[in-house]
Write a structure and sequence with these properties.
Length: 132
């Protein structure tokens, strides 16, 4: 997480599950985005939740440090722009231990995506507000 922006950071949580992050800050400054869900296009099964994303894409700690911009085996693909009106934000999930930081609206998702992790029973996403 202390690497250059655009590099993968993969760690093991609870000794069982891998979590895939995209480093977002300058080299030497910690900052990353946890990938909680993917929209599978090809060669992947549905991945909703950090551990399922890693299982679906066969990501493990051996993938940590890969260049996601110029990479060949693990990379972020260019996609169509998503209008701000379709982006939702809310508090992060599973970080109650983070005190005041837990409530920050740092979780972002596409409002009408069926691939969003952690939905309520009614099908809507927790505590969402419209971006922009």
């Amino acid at each position: 997480m202390w690497g250059a922006a655009g590099v993968s950071y993969v760690y093991l949580i609870y000794g069982l599950h891998h979590c895939f992050n995209v480093v977002t800050e300058r080299d030497g400054f910690p900052g990353a985005v946890l990938v909680r869900a993917i929209e599978p296009l090809e060669n992947a099964t549905r991945g909703s939740g950090p551990a399922l994303v890693c299982r679906s894409l066969r990501i493990d700690r051996g993938c940590s440090g890969q260049d996601l911009v110029e990479g060949v085996s693990l990379f972020i693909e260019k996609a169509p722009k998503i209008p701000d009106t379709r982006v939702r934000m809310g508090p992060r999930i599973g970080v109650d231990y983070a005190g005041d930081w837990a409530g920050h609206p740092w979780r972002l998702w596409v409002a009408d995506s069926e691939h969003v992790s952690r939905r309520t029973r009614q099908g809507s996403v927790y505590d969402s507000t419209v971006l922009g």
